[in-house]
Amino acid sequence: MGTYATVQALFTAICDAIRTKDGTAATIAHQDIPDRIAAIPTGGGSGALPYFWRTDANVRILVMIPYDYYTFPGTLRVLNKASVHIDWGDGESTDTPKQTKTTVVQEIDHMYASAGVYEITMTTEAKTVDNLIIAFEEPAKHGLVLGVSTDGQAKCSAVELYTGVTGMVRAVYGVSTSQDYGTSMQAGATFPASILEMHKSKPNISGNSAICKFYGSMYSGGGSYLLAYCKSLREVYLHDCFKIDGDCFGYDEALERVYIHDDGGPSGQSYYKIGSKAFENCTALKEVILDIKDRYVYPSLAADAFTNSGITETTGTIYVTDEYLDDMKTKTNWSTYADIMQPLSLYTGEEYHGYGN
Amino acid sequence: MAIKTKTEGNFTYTWSDAGYLIHGGDPDDDYALAKDPVTHPRTYTETSTPIPTDDHEPTDEDYAIAGRILLGEGETA
């Protein structure tokens, strides 16, 4: 146990410990420390979120093995050319073989000698290969619980991990077999491809109550109701957004932060839109961060994008790149929120600059 | 069908009276309703695109596109 000469040193140590646990590097505001501590996984039992999280290089999943000599899960699929190193958390590991095609599906499983809680870590050095999708399918059939929501109601039937061409996935989430909401999804969206596959045989993932954080890009549109009614979703981090479709995040009543990043370079998009009711009824929404380096990439905003949300003319904060702040206050529909706009330099929360970053 | 405007306080509101998207603004785009500060008047033209509803059921073609995207083959065959 360390000793701390000052209160500042103690708080720094607490924040360092939080960052180590949840794999982030961003500065933590002091008022957020209690919530960040509460969000650290406890390693078992119901009521602890998140069960899935990622670090800079790895993706980690916490699993509960229900009985001795349990084979998990029987239907691990790896669709990728590169090899994936899977550490099962019990002292054993598997390296998936490299493939020459992206269409190969590999059946990979692992037997746990003892019941208990294990942390599975997956890493890949895939930098220039095609997208990697690792799916644990329907473990509920085997009596395996991958994670539960804080109210103990949502059970995860699949975990799908998506990565871009530059590195390991930044977005992990669990989905429930029980879907009560959601209508349809624009199939042309390129993120996440795993969701598109799920829609072929499973209900829409909107309404999922296990997703608490979401990272990714929406190159050709997120799809209406893509992540609507996700009552545990608290933070969304988007990179290289082309369009946030209408109702994409509608009725995400726990959503507090939306972070949008674009470098505006060759990989940046020249067209950008936040659609009708994109954040409708996001009543807890506090922050919208537009970390966008190119003024020509700033999104157009539908007049009703923030209907009945925490972002109003007088509540919430919209962070804008410092040199574009004054300009942003006069833009169509954005001008409604001129009084709550702040320079991006004042934002001290988490950032996301795309896969591999 | 006509472009309608209304000034209220420090803002000018612009829309189509026939339920079509209007084009213009800053960023230049299609809008169902445009709200601009009176200090930055902007002109709009009515498009022929109705303000969309959000009903869309995926078709077989949607799933085919999804499959091609999933396999890294792009959106078109």
Summarize the structure.
With 357 residues, chain A is mainly β. Chain A is 10% helix and 26% strand.
Topology:
The complex is a heterodimer of chains A (357) and B (77).
Chain A: H1 7-22, H2 33-38, E1 52-54, E2 58-65, E3 70-79, E4 84-87, E5 93-95, E6 108-112, E7 116-124, E8 132-137, E9 156-163, E10 174-176, H3 193-201, E11 213-216, E12 235-239, E13 243-244, E14 257-262, E15 273-274, E16 287-292, E17 300-301, E18 317-320, H4 325-328, E19 341-343
Parallel strand pairs in A: 11-12, 12-14, 13-15, 14-16, 15-17, 16-18, 18-19
Antiparallel strand pairs in A: 1-2, 2-7, 3-6, 3-8, 4-5, 4-7, 8-9, 9-10
Chain B: E1 3-8, E2 11-16, E3 20-24, E4 29-31, E5 33-37, E6 44-50, H1 60-70
Antiparallel strand pairs in B: 1-2, 2-5, 3-4, 3-6
Protein model, in words:
The complex is a heterodimer of chains A (357) and B (77). Chain A has 357 residues and is mainly beta. Helices cover 10% and strands 26% of the residues of chain A. Chain A contains four helices and 19 strands. Chain B is mostly beta strands. In chain B, the strands form two sheets. Chain B has a three-stranded antiparallel beta sheet with strand order 1-2-5, with no helix packed on it. In chain B, a hairpin with a 2-residue loop joins strand 1 and strand 2. The longest helix of chain B is centred in the last third of the chain and has 11 residues, at 60-70. Chain B is globular, with a radius of gyration of 18 Å.
